[in-house]
């Protein structure tokens, strides 16, 4: 038997709210010390922002470690890929002097043009039960995977197999669009076939059996950083169903979405904003409105990275965060955007929901209950405006130097959700970070 190390350093970064918590920033912060940075679910519905000095990168498929020369970036089998989008992402990085060291799983499913048409039809059909999708074809591609007529990245390298599978999937989707939804379907099968074979040709040097590569690295004791997309409330099983995405966003998905049975010690970091944002449709108990919301949205620049939609904003919700701790098995929390939540005399934090007169501290599975949930708040003291110079100072001097009101906010969260906050983010830049 070959000697296996299994002493791997494994760090998982997942979203603890509704997505857009700053996973890209936190992943980038740790990626420089890792050998592999891996995406394991979701697709280009994700938009992860990494800012390095004056350069802003918005990544959709490619892991947020790509800006360092050392780590290998891997798109695992659990991810769904729009190959045209991926090619554009690679080209745009190359134009900016970044040569992606990238591997793409041959088992990852492919987002096809008819998935995007279906996404539009579904959203219209679902009405008030829709999630307000990113229209990237995410639900239909995962549905086709489950129907077992999906197309995988490896198929784009095998013309005969691709044609055989495409015939079935195309006919199915065309029938649903034209007959069930009675909508227009003007995609020609021949065009899709030619275009997608050419995407396969362009991407062929990246497509491989990532399971085997990752396993070899795992046995050699290499270090891994696994980057989640979306957040716990968007998880297909554990989120606020049906207002979710169509993949499992929680840390438990790392094994399935990479094909590696990681079985050692792991660090699981849940990223949470100091407040909450939500892009899309669902009950949102702590949502703010009017001037208060407008102010926070502008200050935090809360506009979707993928779609540009204004994000709904609200107070920090500890019922949601408590669920994130439990479901992901978080070992720690990274709290972002502390710098945005400044210059307010007081801050409200939701500790429980009042549902029909009952105080509920754990996230209910019932949509009916979530529609009725009224937040119960604790009120904490705010902190003053923080200048760029002060941010530099706090980041140099460390946690203890922060204003007491910030430390009280952090302690309150730790106590309420029973998980340590070990990372404080005070700005979008890599160095605007305090690790305790
Ligand atoms: P992700 O999807 O979780 O990676 O998050 P997004 O990139 O969609 O949205 C987070 C936004 O917040 C991005 O514009 C980041 O540059 C920014 N950001 C992350 N952390 C901080 C922080 O601590 N302070 C401020 N001001 N911005 C931050
Ligand atoms: P990152 O990784 C925020 C939301 C959509 C919609 C629901 C379903 O950047 O945090 P989908 O297109 O997945 O079928 O949409 O999920 N959504 C996100 N919201 N950040 C994301 O990703 C999201 N990805 C999907 O707005 O409500
Ligand atoms: Mg995002």
Describe this structure in words.
With 436 residues, the protein is α/β, with parallel strands linked by helices. The protein has a domain at 109-203: Adenylosuccinate Synthetase, subunit A, domain 2, CATH 1.10.300. The chain contains 13 helices and 19 strands. The chain has helices at 23-31, 83-95, 113-126, 138-147, 159-180, 189-203, 210-219, 253-258, 290-299, 318-328, 367-372, 388-397, 404-417; strands spanning 10-15, 36-39, 48-52, 55-59, 72-75, 80-81, 102-105, 109-110, 207-208, 224-227, 267-273, 276-278, 312-314, 332-336, 346-355, 358-360, 374-381, 421-425, 433-435. A ten-stranded mixed β-sheet has the order 9-7-5-2-10-1-11-14-18-19, sandwiched between helices. A three-stranded antiparallel β-sheet has the order 16-15-17. It is globular and about 65 Å long. It starts with 9 loop residues before the first strand and ends with a strand. Residues 19-20, 46-48, 305 line the site of magnesium ion (MG).
Mean residue pLDDT: 96
Q: What's the CATH class label of the domain at 109-203? A: Mainly Alpha
List the uncertain runs: none
| Fraction of residues in β-strands | 15-25%
Measured as a percent range, the helix fraction is: 25-40%
Count of separate DSSP helical elements = 13
Briefly note the structural class of the backbone. alpha/beta
Overall geometry: globular
Based on the coordinates given, report the CATH architecture of the domain at 109-203: Orthogonal Bundle
Determine the CATH superfamily of the domain at 109-203.
Answer: Adenylosuccinate Synthetase, subunit A, domain 2
Give the termini separation: 41 Å
Radius of gyration: 22 Å
List how many beta strands DSSP finds.
Answer: 19
Largest β sheet strand count, sense and barrel closure: 10 strands, mixed
Task: List the ligand species.
Answer: guanosine-5'-diphosphate, 6-O-phosphoryl inosine monophosphate, magnesium ion
Instruction: From the 3D structure, determine the CATH topology of the domain at 109-203.
Output: Adenylosuccinate Synthetase, subunit A, domain 2
Query: How are the strands of the biggest sheet laid out side by side?
Result: 9-7-5-2-10-1-11-14-18-19
